[in-house]
Amino acid sequence: MKSKEEVDTKVQTGTFILSEKIDDTKSKKSEKEMKKEMKKLEKEKQEREKREKKAREKEKEREKQAKKENRDNADLCAKSFTLRKVFLYQAQRYQYNDD
């Protein structure tokens, strides 16, 4: 018969080996999960960057359109001002011709 110490040692050794195997399995699962999580985070980051880039492009397009509209409005104002001057000039000439 084996002494109690030998049995305890074997049980402890067996338990230790078993726990190492379990830990190793857990760490492998953990590594897989970490890789999965990293891929997921990378994908989310790329999607976020894509959305941000698209938003920046939209904002640039809006600014470009606003500048164009401002130029068009300025051109219309200038034309309107010129037409008023011409109209007033012609009205004055017409008045002088009536006299």
Task: Walk me through the structure.
Residues 22-74 have a biased composition (Basic and acidic residues). This protein is an all-alpha fold. It has one helix at 4-98. The chain is rod-shaped. The model has no long low-confidence stretch (mean pLDDT 79).
Quick structural summary:
With 99 residues, this protein is mainly alpha-helical.
Question: Secondary-structure blueprint of this entry?
Answer:
Layout (H helix, E strand, L loop, with lengths): L3 H95 L1
Helix share bin: over 70%
Approximate strand percentage: under 5%
Q: Label the structural class.
A: mainly alpha
| Biggest sheet statistics | none
- Low-confidence segments, given as residue ranges, are none
Total beta-strand segments? 0
What is the alpha-carbon Rg in Å? Answer: 42 Å
The helix count comes to: 1
The outline comes out as rod-shaped
The overall pLDDT, averaged over residues, is: 79
Alpha carbon gap, first and last residue: 144 Å
SSE pattern: H
Keywords, separated by commas or semicolons:
99 residues; mainly alpha; 96% helix
